[in-house]
Amino acid sequence: MSNISAAVTADRLPAEGRRVAARAADLRKTYGRGDTVVAALDGVSIEFAAGRFTAVMGASGSGKSTLMHCMAALDKPTSGEVYLGDVELSTLGDKELTRIRRDKVGFVFQAFNLVPTLTAQENIELPLSLAGRKPDPDWFDTVVDVTGLRDRLSHRPSELSGGQQQRVACARALLSQPDVVFADEPTGNLDSTSGAEVLSFLRDTVDSHGQTVVMVTHDPVAAAYTDRVVFLADGLVVDELHQPSAELVLEQLKRLTAAAGGSAAATGTMATGSEAGA
Prior knowledge:
By secondary structure, this protein is of the alpha/beta class.
């Protein structure tokens, strides 16, 4: 499987002189010990420019969710560095990391993670309420209007559709005006119509409000809403696309899958030959 070409690596630099909202340097994450050790991330260095929508894609086990959790301060890497803006996360204590997660990072989970006994408005305001803060009224109105939830604020999650619940989760992630919103398979539990609503909303927050969004997805159609797609395999960044279409993303996924299959087949052939000669 080929590494990123020099031209693509240069193109990773933030477009139009944008500041870097988040970045990782030689990020590694391993699980287990000795013969059972597994490298979920194997030296990832990557930048996410502010005000851009980025998708992270790869096969199951490629490290995409692990990368997102480390970048969002939800998990600690084994080694390497993670920066949010100019702040390096490994230098922070537990209280500072809690503040970073609360104030600087928004996270949208595939499973919504709404509190069933609270209304949509109470769910949206929950992180700020726990921090003893009140939302900025003007920004609250903006978030509610952008998500189209004005007539659903008094409804509980069980009274909302899947798409509406995920939009509540998105609104909750945005209310603190975070530096970066990380979304882990945000349309994974939604039908195509509801998924399109959520993706359009995320796209609009980038275009109209300058939000930075990083999304893990397996869906080429979802990836086509973004400005850039980063592909991971075996814990490494192996390629990327800019201004992607669903067709281009699908073609690239097929190429990477074929390359991975070829490498596996070659390894198997070498093993068989070695055993035969033994």
